[in-house]
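Milestone 3.1: sequence recovery, worked example.
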């Protein structure tokens, strides 16, 4: 089944309902369906064929989803590369995915002209006027072609590449079958209801909304830096459309809470946050600010979304105490659709194929720390060209498991706790120490907004962002400094990831601390 058939069904059932709203622009399910039919007809006229890949440089917008649906209707693949990737990475990604064409904004077209790997791509379409370029809006002049190319479950729909900052960029391939499986799981996890509206900041969730008959509100502001978004248009959208749900990174919601007008978020029945660690302090603030809203933290990754969920109302005083004392970060209950295990930590070593008996021997018992590994219908089984499979995948009697790269354990109630990245764990003569154990404990104090625990040389170092003077910070964290055998406490700015602005960039942090 081609995933666009889900949109066709929604267009038939609720054609006049708004599908996407972006500032003053909006489109109904029926018109979105019709525009995707016209778009696929135009793509066919340009010589594109089923199986072709097209590199897309278009931000979250109505145009983006018209383009995606048009590509898929024709059995094509949409390819995305992190815009921050350098020329070498762009060249590598294009060499592997072999895109035939390019669709982008006028600004992206200028980037294409500067980059040799992109300059050779053709045909080329632009979403806005640019001299000597065909415009995507011309699709509106084509006759509606409502047919769609039949796709197999393994037919690629999306290929996304990492930035390649830590090595060869991995290509993540989402097939039509995978997107359908993910839709089933997220529809249940997010409790999506057709006819209602959702405030979405992550592209994949808007696709799920379209498939479920949910109106998607796309904020009319840049979403590149979630921790620094312009709050006014977002809160104005909430006042205007009154979405029932919202999905975004923790940095996004933390930013909104700083605006006195955040009461506009009280229209939300449910708020979901994830894509980065969701610390208890933020959950408490959200629950206080939005007393009638269900606050849910979602744990997952690009390869497996979702894995576990945690309702803030389910966190007990004992749970808060455990996190404050170094027990790690509570991630909650594993979703029904996924098989999650804690395996003996062997990060950095390939596992290959395991027998059922060998795997059972590696699986840890409740309370024991190890690698978090997952398997299920909505878990990606491999990367493009197999690059990254050896380190991140293994099989058990033919079933492929994904290694999340995270450390954790199950408590007596079967809930998942996180301890940080496998590669970030500290092992020295004083024993083993886990990043999230100390970082979560340090962030229990309102005066500390960020914390990062790492090893620099032989020193155990805790970096914090705070307005407290050094002596007061030292006094406040005294018990934790002693418990985790810290050598240094550093006050300053902590580098974060570029995508969510909520994950510590440990390599960059170590580099800074080593030179200070």
């Amino acid at each position: 089944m081609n995933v666009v058939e889900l949109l066709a069904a929604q267009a038939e059932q609720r054609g006049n309902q708004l599908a996407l709203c972006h500032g003053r622009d909006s489109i109904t399910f029926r018109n979105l369906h019709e525009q995707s039919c016209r778009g696929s007809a135009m793509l066919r006229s340009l010589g594109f064929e089923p199986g072709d890949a097209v590199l897309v440089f278009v931000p979250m917008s109505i145009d983006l989803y018209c383009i995606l649906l048009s590509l898929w209707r024709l059995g094509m693949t949409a390819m995305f590369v992190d815009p921050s990737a350098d020329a070498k990475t762009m060249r590598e990604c294009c060499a592997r995915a072999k895109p035939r064409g390019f669709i982008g904004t006028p600004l992206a077209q200028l980037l294409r002209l500067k980059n040799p790997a992109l300059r050779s791509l053709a045909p080329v379409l632009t979403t806005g006027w640019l001299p000597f370029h065909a415009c995507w809006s011309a699709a509106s002049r084509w006759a509606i072609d409502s047919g769609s190319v039949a796709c197999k479950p393994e037919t690629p729909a999306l290929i996304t590449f990492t930035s390649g900052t830590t090595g060869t960029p991995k290509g993540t391939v989402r097939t039509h079958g995978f997107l359908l499986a993910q839709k089933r799981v997220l529809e249940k996890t997010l409790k999506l209801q057709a006819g209602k509206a959702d405030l979405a900041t992550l592209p994949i969730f808007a696709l799920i909304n379209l498939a479920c008959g949910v109106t998607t509100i796309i904020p009319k502001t840049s979403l590149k830096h979630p921790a620094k978004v312009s709050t006014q248009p977002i809160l104005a959208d909430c006042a205007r459309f009154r979405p029932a749900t919202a999905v975004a990174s923790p940095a996004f919601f933390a930013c909104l809470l700083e605006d006195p007008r955040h009461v506009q978020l009280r229209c939300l029945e449910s708020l979901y946050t994830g894509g980065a660690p969701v610390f208890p302090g933020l959950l408490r603030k959200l629950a206080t600010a939005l007393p009638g809203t269900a606050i849910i933290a979602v744990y997952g990754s690009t390869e497996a979304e979702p894995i576990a969920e945690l309702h803030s109302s389910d966190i007990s005083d004992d749970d808060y105490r455990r996190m404050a004392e170094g027990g790690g970060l509570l991630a909650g209950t594993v979703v029904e659709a996924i098989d999650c295990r804690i395996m003996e930590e062997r990060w950095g070593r390939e596992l290959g194929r395991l027998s059922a008996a060998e795997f059972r021997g590696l699986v840890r018992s409740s309370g024991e720390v190890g690698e978090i590994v997952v398997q299920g219908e909505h878990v990606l089984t491999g990367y493009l060209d197999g690059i990254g499979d050896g380190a991140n995948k293994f099989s058990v009697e033919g079933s492929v498991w994904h290694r999340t790269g995270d450390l954790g354990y199950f408590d007596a109630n079967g809930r998942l706790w996180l301890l940080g990245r496998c590669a970030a764990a500290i092992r020295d003569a004083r024993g083993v120490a886990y990043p999230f154990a100390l970082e979560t404990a340090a962030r229990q104090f309102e005066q500390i907004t960020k914390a990062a625990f790492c090893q620099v040389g032989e020193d155990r170092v805790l970096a914090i962002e705070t307005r407290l003077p050094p002596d007061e910070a030292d006094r406040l964290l005294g018990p934790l400094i002693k418990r985790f055998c810290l050598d240094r406490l550093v006050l300053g700015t902590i580098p974060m990831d570029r995508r969510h602005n909520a994950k510590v960039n440990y390599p960059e942090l170590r580099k800074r601390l080593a030179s200070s």
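Residues 111 and 176 are 30 Å apart (CA to CA). The radius of gyration is 23 Å.
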